[in-house]
Design goal:
Structural class: alpha+beta
Helix content: 40-55%
Largest sheet: 5 strands, mixed, barrel
Strand order of the largest sheet: 1-2-3-6-5
Shape: elongated
Order of helices and strands: HHHEEHEEHEEEHEHH
Radius of gyration: 32 Å
Low-confidence stretches: 35-46
Mean pLDDT: 78
Number of helices: 8
Distance between the termini: 141 Å
């Protein structure tokens, strides 16, 4: 090897050491920044892997940002659904979280609609334990969560239960509460619900079903009988007064 080779190698090595010495603060700053980012990610992961057992445990930020959570349906109630929250599962963190997790079910109401009794019966047939749903947080009222709920129907398909109930004519559309700070989401969801209801009206389904001719005649006869009995009652009362 010529003298020029070792000299060149030594020159480049010295320059590398010099660069590292001059930029050691930058390297330390980057390392510190990465450590902070790692701590933030860890903190968020712990929050996301927390199992919520009642509505009051859910952070306000989750409600304000309309976060979507996953859950397993246990019961259909008069007000909506009883759901077991399924937190995000991550290695190591999840094993630590399970030590402090408690049992409890979230009380979820389907936002933007008023269900009929037939709607609750239909819902009981559609959602049975252990069906999994995604519920988007729209509002919290005491122990209840008003949500837009999607039911998994296979690996790649899901339906919105709020819209499906209206589409079957098993409820009426009402105003979605709790989205004053997010008008874009409000109008998107409210429009979908109204379209679902109008489809039921157009097809005459559920509460929008037109009575048949036989049903109309039966109703008229029943009303006539009630009116006849009412008139008889009036005549009887009058006859008592004249005695």
């Amino acid at each position: 090897m010529s003298d020029e080779g070792p000299n060149a190698l030594g020159y480049y090595l010295s320059k590398a050491v010099e660069f590292a010495d001059e930029h050691v603060r930058v390297v330390r700053t980057i390392s510190t920044g990465l450590a902070v980012v790692g701590i933030v990610i860890l903190a968020r992961s712990v929050r996301l892997t927390t199992k919520f057992t009642n509505a009051l445990e859910i952070p306000n930020k989750f409600i304000e940002k309309n976060i979507k959570l996953r859950g397993r349906i246990h019961h259909v109630t008069e007000n909506g659904l009883e759901v077991e929250h399924i937190p995000i599962s991550l290695p190591f963190i999840s094993s630590l979280q399970k030590k402090w997790q408690q049992d409890g079910l979230l009380m979820i109401r389907l936002a933007g609609l008023q269900m009929t009794n037939e709607g609750r019966a239909w819902l009981s047939e559609q959602v049975k334990d252990p069906h999994v749903i995604w519920f988007q947080l729209l509002r919290r009222e005491n122990s209840f969560l008003d949500c837009n709920v999607r039911l998994n129907k296979g690996l790649l398909f899901s339906i919105c239960l709020n819209e499906e109930i209206l589409r079957e004519g098993l409820g009426r559309t009402i105003n979605i509460e709790g989205l004053h700070s997010n008008p874009k989401l409000y109008w998107r969801l409210q429009t979908k619900l109204l379209k679902a209801e109008m489809k039921a009206v157009k097809n005459g389904k559920g509460i929008w079903k037109e009575p048949t001719l036989l049903e109309k005649i039966s109703n008229n006869l029943q009303n006539s009988k009630i009116l006849h009995n009412f008139n008889n009652l009036i005549l009887w009362v009058r006859s008592l007064r004249n005695k």
